[in-house]
Inverse folding.
């Protein structure tokens, strides 16, 4: 294996998910193809074009029940930042729900946030540690 390409997020509706991830979190749409029975929607952070989020619309009752609960209360991804306080202020100003105030632990500053469905992400500003050494993410 060489790289991680996409993480998959179940969504209720493509439009509302795109609006949240684009307008609030700062992702950009780079694939949006209507391929008959399925629509392929991929978003990415402008600073990391090779990795992204692939939205899949929940279709069955079981899938709908999993929207926002794919990881059953555990974070589904870690997002790195160079300035957590700045991003925290910007995101809260856009209405993004944080689980708690930012805190420092194991050489990093981090805060947990929810997307529009309740999926949890960790926003992390690393100190001098490498990402894989951080206890926060």
């Amino acid at each position: 294996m060489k790289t991680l390409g996409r993480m998959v997020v179940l969504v209720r509706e493509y439009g509302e998910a795109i609006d949240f991830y684009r307008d609030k979190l700062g992702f950009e749409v780079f694939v949006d193809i209507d391929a008959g029975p399925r629509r392929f929607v991929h978003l990415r952070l402008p600073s990391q074009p090779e990795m992204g989020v692939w939205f899949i619309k929940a279709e069955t009752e079981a899938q709908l029940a999993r929207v926002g609960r794919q990881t059953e209360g555990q974070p589904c991804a870690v997002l790195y930042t160079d300035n957590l306080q700045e991003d925290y202020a910007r995101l809260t100003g856009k209405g993004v729900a944080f689980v708690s105030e930012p805190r420092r632990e194991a050489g990093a500053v981090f805060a947990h946030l929810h997307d529009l469905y309740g999926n949890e992400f960790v926003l992390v500003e690393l100190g001098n540690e490498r990402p894989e050494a951080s206890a926060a993410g």
Q: What stands out?
A: The beta strands are 6-11, 28-35, 38-44, 52-57, 77-80, 97-98, 103-105, 108-114, 120-126. DSSP finds three helices and nine strands in the chain. The helical segments are 14-24, 61-66, 84-93. The chain has two domains: 1-67, 70-137.
